């Protein structure tokens, strides 16, 4: 008899079924997970059902109209058990051994948390968490929006960072409460949904960390840095050289929206 799931892992794929296979395999064959793969690209659903035909832990949802990243989770919610911890992640991640156990231990250790931010090691070898110790200021967000309004300018900035736009914060102790973790892997505790945490984010991509961070703050829940759970992030799905101009255009509208919200919130 199979072990009932103790954690739900929602993987959003856009042409990343092979990556998703690597992620699911890295969780371990005996990990008590319910894996829900949101297939956002035409052809992904059929490919995923073939790839995971022998793994009863994996369910495939056909979202080939491509709702986006967090909107895919929002659409999938009726299919999920709200009593379980919930992971939302990109497909281009690989978990270190023991990651699931560390996440479950973190949920038990931090009952005040709405979000756990695991260690996400980027392709440059640096931990992309805890990401944001405090909310970004409205002025900073307006400046970023201005930069991303011109894709060529944003492209130059990304080239200087070798295509990686994520910031890195060093010297943060495990368990520290922060504003937001990295959006590539968001671990929501059962309290997040139980307390009324929202998932109806209005943009397909980017800014998810600001959404979940502000929601946790609104609900009086903490965001805890959990480096005992480790994942490794390939980062090629959104930040590859040929996609940088597209990334800049998508980010522009979201950054303008967040700049207005930040001003209203007094960030």
Task: Give the topology.
Layout: E1 7-13, H1 17-27, E2 33-39, H2 44-51, E3 58-62, H3 70-76, E4 86-90, E5 93-95, H4 99-109, E6 113-121, H5 138-149, H6 151-160, E7 177-178, E8 185-188, H7 190-194, H8 208-219, E9 222-233, H9 236-239, H10 244-265
Helix pairs in contact: 5-10, 6-10
Would you summarize the structure shown here?
The chain is 38% helix and 20% strand. By secondary structure, it is an alpha/beta fold.
Provide the descriptors you would attach to this structure in a database record.
single chain, 267 residues, alpha/beta, Spore Coat Polysaccharide Biosynthesis Protein SpsA, Chain A, nine-stranded mixed beta sheet, 9 strands, glycosyltransferase, Glycosyltransferase family 2 protein, Nucleotide-diphossugar_trans, transferase
What is the total domain count?
A: 1
Query: Uncertain segments of ≥5 residues (pLDDT<50)?
Result: 237-242
Number of strands: 9
List SSEs in N-to-C order: EHEHEHEEHEHHEEHHEHH
Largest sheet: 9 strands, mixed
Helix content: 25-40%
Could you say which overall geometry the principal axes of the C-alpha atoms support? globular
| Average residue-wise pLDDT | 91
CATH architecture: Alpha-Beta Complex
Q: Helical stretch count?
A: 10
CATH superfamily: Spore Coat Polysaccharide Biosynthesis Protein SpsA, Chain A
Rounded to the nearest angstrom, the distance between the terminal CA atoms is 51 Å
Strand content: 15-25%
Classified by CATH, the class is Alpha Beta
């Amino acid at each position: 008899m199979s072990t009932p799931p103790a954690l739900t892992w929602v993987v959003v794929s856009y042409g990343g079924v092979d990556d998703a296979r690597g992620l699911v395999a890295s969780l371990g064959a005996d990990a008590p997970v319910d894996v829900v793969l949101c297939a956002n690209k035409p052809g992904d659903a059929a490919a995923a059902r073939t790839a995971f035909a022998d793994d009863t832990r994996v369910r495939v949802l056909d979202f080939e109209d491509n709702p986006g990243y967090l909107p895919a989770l929002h659409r999938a919610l009726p299919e999920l058990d709200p009593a379980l911890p919930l992971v939302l992640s990109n497909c281009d991640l690989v978990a270190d051994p023991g990651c699931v156990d560390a996440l479950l231990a973190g949920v038990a250790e931090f009952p005040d948390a709405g979000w756990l931010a695991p260690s996400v090691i980027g392709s440059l070898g640096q931990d992309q968490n805890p990401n944001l110790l405090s909310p970004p200021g409205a002025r900073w967000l307006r400046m970023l929006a201005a930069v991303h309004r011109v894709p060529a300018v944003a492209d130059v900035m990304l080239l200087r960072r070798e295509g990686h736009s994520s910031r890195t914060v060093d010297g943060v102790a495990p368990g520290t409460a922060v504003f937001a973790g990295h959006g590539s892997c968001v671990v929501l505790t059962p309290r997040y949904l139980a307390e009324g945490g929202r998932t109806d984010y209005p943009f397909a991509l980017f800014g998810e960390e600001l959404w979940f961070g502000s929601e946790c703050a609104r609900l009086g829940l903490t965001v805890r840095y959990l480096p005992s759970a480790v994942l490794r992030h390939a980062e090629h799905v959104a930040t590859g050289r040929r996609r940088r101009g597209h990334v800049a255009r998508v980010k522009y509208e979201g950054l303008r929206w967040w700049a207005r919200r930040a001003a209203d919130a007094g960030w």
